[in-house]
Design brief:
Layout: H1 2-24, H2 26-46, E1 51-58, H3 73-76, H4 86-93, H5 96-103, E2 110-116, E3 119-122, E4 129-135, E5 140-145, E6 150-158, E7 165-173, E8 177-179, E9 184-189, E10 200-204, E11 213-218, E12 225-232, H6 235-251
Antiparallel strand pairs: 1-12, 2-3, 2-10, 4-9, 5-6, 5-10, 6-7, 8-9, 11-12
Length: about 260
């Protein structure tokens, strides 16, 4: 009995000591909790939202007699008659050939941004302006409305010849060519649109490429329906690319 009583007393002492320690450092503990909570909230706020779009297609499992998909072995199987496994169909959908076709109808080369409540968001087709770039691809341009007819642009980069950093700030008119040693483009306001935000940013890539993640899966274990899923930070672009990929696949297949 004395041994059990001793263990009970010791447990009570340990618990009391824990509470005394917590009480002693309560201010530090509360401060740490607040800091961690704020950090998590800030991280969640500034983290880009990711949207996932889906498209379903029914594949022909008996035979495939369609147009040629190129010289790739996996794709040439699509044009031969006979049974084609679902895994093969999924690899065809994920192929570079179909991705290139889908890219022809979805713009991944022009990226327009603005900042709202300290958070940068991509505008995609809701941008109030568009840019026709002839030189200066991959550069990040910051745009500030100047007046109804003009805008100010800031840009910096590294000279290809001297390897030295450079930066420029200039004012140009809408619809006229903005040109310097490092870039040349024409920025046009869309009809009925104005630049209502304090600043914008745009980047034009020389070649568009898929920036999100794509996957293909079967709707069910024995289903002939494949589900194409694509994730992007722009919901409209996610849906457009998913649909374009499905249409590219269907256009190459005759069931």
């Amino acid at each position: 009995m004395s041994s059990k009583q001793y263990e009970t007393d010791e447990d009570e002492i340990n618990i009391k000591e824990i509470f005394r320690t917590l009480y002693r450092y309560k201010i530090s503990i509360i401060f740490i909790v607040i800091v961690v909570t704020l950090y998590a909230a800030i991280f969640a706020y500034f983290k880009p939202n990711i949207y996932t779009a889906h498209a379903s297609i029914e594949v022909g499992m008996e035979s495939r007699n369609g147009g040629s998909l190129g010289n790739q072995d996996i794709l040439s199987m699509a044009t031969s008659s006979g049974y084609v496994a679902p895994d093969t169909e999924m690899e065809i959908i994920k192929s570079r050939f179909l991705s290139t076709q889908a890219l022809e109808s979805v713009d991944f080369s022009h990226h327009y941004y603005t900042t709202i409540k300290l958070r940068e968001i991509e505008l995609y087709k809701s941008s109030p302006f568009d840019v026709n770039m002839s030189k200066g691809y991959e550069l990040s341009f910051v745009l500030y409305p100047y007046n109804e007819k003009s805008y100010r642009v800031e840009v910096e980069g590294v000279d290809e010849d001297t390897k030295k950093e450079w930066q420029e700030t200039k004012i140009y008119k809408y619809g006229e060519e903005a040109k310097s040693k490092h870039y040349a483009f024409k920025l046009n306001l869309k009809e009925g649109k104005t630049l209502d935000n304090p600043s914008y940013r745009f980047v034009v890539l020389s070649e568009g490429f898929v920036t999100g993640s794509m996957s293909v899966s079967m709707a069910g274990k024995f289903s002939s329906i494949l589900v194409i899923s694509y994730s992007d930070n722009v919901p409209l672009r996610a849906q457009e690319y998913t649909n374009a990929l499905a249409e590219a696949y269907i256009s190459q297949s005759i069931y």
